[in-house]
# Entry
Amino acid sequence: MMQIAILGFGVVGSGTAEVLTENKKLITAHCGEEVSVKYILDLREFPDHPLGDRVVHDINVILNDPEVVLVAEMMGGSHPAYEFTSAALKAGKHVVTSNKEVVANYGVELLTLARENHVRYLFEASVGGGIPIIRPMQTDLASNEIIAVSGILNGTTNFILTKMKNEGAEFADVLKQAQAMGYAEANPAADVEGLDAARKIVILAALAYGVLIDPKTIPTEGITKITGLHTATADKLGCAVKLIGHTERIDGKIYAAVSPYLVPASNPISHVDDVFNGILVDTNMLGRALFYGAGAGKLPTASAVVADIIDILSHRAEERKLPDWKNAAPADIADKADYICRRCYLIEGCPQCAAKAKAALGTEICEFVEDGKFAVVSREMSEKEATAALASIGLQAVFCLPVLD
Ligand code: HSE
# Structure
């Protein structure tokens, strides 16, 4: 019997206990021994839960118990999750987590601590919920250079954008539904302002390029300003509005950002709806790969946590390599102003203005969205260049969204 502890018995923590119970037979077969939850650390009591008698309130009970070989941290938030993770690694316990905030903020330090203490720190559930993406990037794509990663990385905002598009629903009402379904973060600002996706894209950038960027420093825009006009513009152009995390290497520097994009129907990401996530990885040998599945929710996310538990417990006798990231320095990070892509500009003006805008932005793609408002898609250029081109003919955009090709 192998003993583990669960830190945080919320949606994902209780889901992890459920997966361990429901799939006990196959998990035992994978690990070679039964996996038992000896402790659950939470501030609350769970008297009606079958594992209610395992609840403790003091992390030291877990740290000081030599029988506990692995800790699954699903507390959410940076503190005290970071301190408890550090302490567990120092105590020689493996740690698995779904906590992207901790991985994005302290990944370099925690991986180093894990290496020093000859244990592992795994975080498959931190990006894409239940979708396998972290391990495939480390193993199956290891023979490839990663050119770019672009993805719908937040289930809550994708759920909201899908409902706004299909049902004309109001932002606030759909957010409440997402919260009730257990998708949203405790503070939904992390979802709707793009911070959750920012944490996830810096983790993917670190896997791709070995450099962990502070998520607070990347250009981050959420969906709170998205309205029916954005959706109508997207429809007119045969696109969907999606919140995209994107990273790529530009002239040896790493670019990473989160923002709403227009995604053409020809891109499979545009059909990723509801709470699903879709992550496109562009590589130099395989080409483009799409990772798709449930990006949030209790059992999907817990299934990824348990996959990490199985990985560790079934290879306990071996010392396995962990990613060797370094923290990004300013010189590693590409400037947003230099980012070149096609962009859609919604502009107020007459048909003559539209013709001038097309010429200035070097494109033929232009549609009237509603009376006196047209959408024009630029050729590939920087935002600075496009804004200057429009200003030179006296036009100013109502909004601008990048296009994900
Ligand atoms: N709040 C997150 C989301 C949970 O909606 O994607 C999964 O990371």
Observations:
- The pocket of L-homoserine is lined by residues 129, 154-156, 183-185, 191, 196, 295-296 (CB under 6 Å).
- The chain is about 35% helix and 25% strand.
- The longest helix spans residues 100-116.
- The chain has three domains: 2-129+298-327, 134-294, 339-402.
